[in-house]
From TrEMBL:
Gene: acsA
Protein name: Acetyl-coenzyme A synthetase
Organism of this sequence: Tistlia consotensis USBA 355
Highest rank taxon of the organism: Bacteria
GO biological process: acetyl-CoA biosynthetic process from acetate
Residues given in the record as Mg(2+) binding sites: V535, H537, V540
Cofactor: Mg(2+)
Function, in words: Catalyzes the conversion of acetate into acetyl-CoA (AcCoA), an essential intermediate at the junction of anabolic and catabolic pathways. AcsA undergoes a two-step reaction. In the first half reaction, AcsA combines acetate with ATP to form acetyl-adenylate (AcAMP) intermediate. In the second half reaction, it can then transfer the acetyl group from AcAMP to the sulfhydryl group of CoA, forming the product AcCoA.
Span of domain AMP-dependent synthetase/ligase: 83-467
Enzyme Commission number(s) of this protein: 6.2.1.1
GO cellular component terms given for this protein: cytosol
Amino acid sequence: MTETSVFAVNPEVAENAWVDEAGYFRLYEQSIADPEAFWGEHGKRIHWMKPFTKVKDVSYAPDDLHIRWFQDGTTNVAYNCLDRHLATKRDDTAIIFEGDDPKDSKHISYGEAYEEVCRLANVLKAQGVRKGDRVTIYMPMVPEAAFAMLACARIGAIHSVVFGGFSPDSLANRIVDCDSNFVITADEGVRGGRKIPLKANTDKALEKCPGVDKVLVLRRTGGQIGWVEGRDLWYHEELAKVSDDCPPEEMNAEDPLFILYTSGSTGKPKGVLHTTGGYLVYASMTHQYVFDYHDGDVYWCTADVGWVTGHSYIVYGPLANGATTLVFEGVPNYPDASRFWQVVDKHKVSIFYTAPTAIRALMREGEGPVRRTSRKSLRLLGSVGEPINPEAWLWYHKVVGDERCPIVDTWWQTETGGILITPLPGATPLKPGSATRPFFGIKPVMVDADGKHLEGACEGNLCIGDSWPGQMRTVYGDHERFVQTYFSTYPNKYFTGDGARRDADGYYWITGRVDDVINVSGHRMGTAEVESALVAHAKVAEAAVVGYPHDIKGQGIYAYVTLVAGEEPSDALRKELVQWVRSEIGPIASPDLIQWAPGLPKTRSGKIMRRILRKIAENDYSNLGDTSTLADPAVVDDLIQHRQNKR
Ligand code: PRX
């Protein structure tokens, strides 16, 4: 694939889209020339209880870092996502639920969603949850997960959704970090025909969380679960006890909406904090323009609500726009590899948004499972979470989209709240593998390792030069870490942690993380987290983890493990360690390859030279760089031999 392969905008798409190419440039220039005027206008897209008079108050200076948008306005996110649509859309479908079992699906109208969220909000209130309290949501992909988020938003509680694939320990750490005392979960989840013991995991986690006094449990499967009298409450029983009238709390634009934990290059996961007004403006605006959402569309994002994509583009963006959003409980290959496309046909999905890892996995199954389905309803495809290789892009375009549907390759992060770099379907000629151009108001800045600004076509580190309303505001409970992580490497800019290339047309090509974060199947994982899980095992003396290219996952997890003296490597121990990491963090952190390392390459000051470990993991020994500064250069040869003999 060369950069000359450009897919022109389809004139028919442009004609019906919110913006065409000229419109994009005009709006983009306005947004950069006068952000106050631009966001002052677009900030009005949501309902404000008290309109804002101040648009933007931002300083990126490390000693005075603050980010405020629409700061004197008041609003409520749940009101915007539900109440506001009742007059015109009470009976329209808000959520289509498609269960893991293909026989299990239902439509939930705006009226029904509103009523259930009000009840759930009243349950929270009755149980003592107040504005500003943190509520942990550990749920399967069912509509009640969205209701739980909206119920928190309705009463001003801050939700922290923890992905249902995380282990009891990971759940406990997140509960403790934000001092949450209320958990919403389900008896069990179901994915790909298998049960996930969410309540049992919660019980185990809560052994370490004395602060939690109530657990609300949704009955999803009816499976056997433990029960703590006085602490555990059934969702259906409590909802039946309360009224469906719950006035929305008037929230300041800068009041917190949610915390979402994400991995960083060091230490434990960070609680990314998003606030109310700016977040909703940005999530809803990007959802409308990037997916070119129009009334009548059926929109499906396959992410899990445990990740930011689920927050912004399953729940908040679509519902704020009065859209029909599909919530899918299952996996792409159950009951078979046609499932995604069967669901598309069943519900007449017109906009489909997924991750490259899913596309690559389905691509491996060949065209048959796709071709068996019609997919005529589709008009737009999206990609998110990791770079999409041109081969997968072309397959997605040709086989899934029948060469009819534009693909929006959307680059963004948990921290950014919404999409920052992306094509717009009616406006942007596409280049497979490129996230193309910045969204309105986004000012990408490319810098070299020393922070020098790079102009024109270049390769370097990607920063953003000014704020946008959806930006995170702080790391919950650790503002200093916020400043350090994002604003200290390159002063007066937000540093994304990603490397990128900008071509002569001004298109961005994200090359991946430049820090010690790896991206496994579109899931972010800190190498330090996996290392600390490994060294917590009694037989492990030391561990170093790096990413390596993986055909399906994008990156795989490669662990170098040094055993304590006297322990012998064995296949059984290798399996035990993989299992150990799964139970410490969750299945998404399972090492793909473990290499026994009698020694690790360290500098004389004891720092592990990861650059070398990455090269060895990639099977690239030609370019190991200078190894003379190592305390013991011989360990490198030893590791290479191990790599070549046996994984
Ligand atoms: O490296 C980038 C990659 O995913 C990282 C953000 O991960 P997370 O916070 O979990 O959010 C994922 C969903 C928004 C980024 O720093 N990434 C995300 N989207 C893309 C991407 N890399 C390349 N192309 C993308 N479209």
